[in-house]
Amino acid sequence: NKFEEYTNWGHVLGIENAADLNKAVSRAKVCELVNLAEAHYDSQLAKIAEDISNSKKDIKVVLIAGPSSAGKTTTSKKLDIYLRSKGFITHPIALDDYFTDMDKRPLDKNGKPDFESIRAVDTDLFNKQLTQLLEGKKVSLPTFNFVLGKREFNGNNLQLGEKDIVIIEGLHALNDELTMSIDKSQKFKIYISPLTQLNVDNHTHVHTSDIRKLRRIVRDNKTRGFGARETLRMWPDIKAGERENIFRFQDDVDTVVNSALIYEIGVLKTYVEPLLFNVEEDDPEYPEALRLINFLRNFLPIPSDDIPADSVLREFIGGSCFKG
Fold first, then answer.
1. Taking the complete model, does pTM exceed 0.70, yes or no?
2. What are the counts of helices (DSSP H) followed by strands (DSSP E) for the chain?
3. What is the pLDDT of residues 115-150, one digit of tens each?
4. What string of DSSP letters covers 161-180?
């Protein structure tokens, strides 16, 4: 339904394929297109905040999850603002702080610590503390020390009031095992993914996974110093983790947020093309890099000057006003 909604919106704008987008770029309508796309994305979060505010349920926990490079961080931070504008007091809780100590971490198939498995999270402690919070008790929240590889308690105390809401964003947020002690009526689940409606031409659709892949390549380069080769090499494992930990829970949600921006391929092109051209011909990842290069040739480049600092795209290209 969300995909169809976005397809109809693109039809109204008159942008259904690469040629339509390129026409808008050549006619200097990029700024207008950016504003329309950002308003469409923001309207989804405003509606969620409105639905939670008007709900007859006693919603206390908002859970946000989606595949890699869906834009979860920006979405959770912007939703936080919309909820606060409705009078709620919000408290983000990081699942990473509930990691088990490294010496107790489950191992993956290669014998290395598995950060993707829900067994890497202390679900017992998480459920216990979440239950205590919803009962109005003061709780000392943990902080995971990644240098020492162990959990610490540094006096980070939290106690919820009547209008307080906990926001949990992370890989396992939609898995009920994470919040098994919390009644369903108190939870609001959000699945997020860039469900683009754009086509290359009248016969070839732009795959959602390609949008996420381009976003991930750009972000990995900016934040980790990775080249496109490293990200492409990791992608099969990333997909396997998504199938196991995210996609199988996506139907049991309250709403879907579409983080696709109708103009973003043109912007991503300016950042990702040099990285893809740097993949050597004898690399195993070269065929995929070449496929993406040929795909991007269908789109004119779009400068990032007009993209607002709170855009979900800034999470990948840099310059976001949301830190951390």
1. yes
2. 10, 7
3. 678 888 899 999 999 999 999 999 999 998 888 888
4. -TTEEEEEESTTTT-TTTTT
